[in-house]
Amino acid sequence: MLSVFFGQMADAIYNTSAYFQYDYEDSWITDPITREMIRDIDKSCVLDSGVIDSPVLGKIPPVQLSGGVKTLILVRFEKDKIFNASTCGDNCARWLLRIAENEDRTINLRHLMDFGSDPFEIKILNTGDIVRSMSELVPIAGLFV
Q1: How far apart are CA 115 and CA 43, in angstroms?
Q2: Taking the CB of residue 78, how many other CB atoms lie within 10 A of it?
Q3: Domain boundaries of the chain, sorted by first residue
Q4: Rounded-to-integer distance, Cα 68 and Cα 95, Å
Q5: In contact, 140 and 130? CB cutoff 8 Å
Q6: How far is the C-alpha of 2 from the C-alpha of 20, rounded, in Å?
Q7: How far apart are CA 41 and CA 32, in angstroms?
Q8: What is the pTM of this model?
Q9: Cα–Cα dist 3/105, whole Å
Q10: For residue range 19-47, what is the model confidence (pLDDT) as tens digits?
């Protein structure tokens, strides 16, 4: 299940780009799900662990991926850490839910993310509530962001 803490969170890693730059592993980039995320979010293709083909930037290293993709990769592979997912756009929401389908994950959000119209299940750590739709999520998130 995906757990979300809204607002300032002492334990969260705020600068996900800096963390990614120094801690990602090559094997994370060539992972099949990572490849899907990169194709979907950045519209780019992983050529190997050190080269991604971007339609906008050309051949780039992993550290030049978007902040959203870098955060998704960290959430996927650094299971015991909490990352600031406010670097992610709404296009990352379904990936956050997918990553947390089989293994619990916790993220920090400092804005309201649109998780879409399909049913979902998110635990709000600020209150302990479990929400299953945006209409349930919005009023609670509004208290903290």
Answers
A1: 20
A2: 17
A3: 2-142
A4: 10
A5: no
A6: 21
A7: 14
A8: 0.96
A9: 6
A10: 999 999 999 999 999 999 999 999 999 99
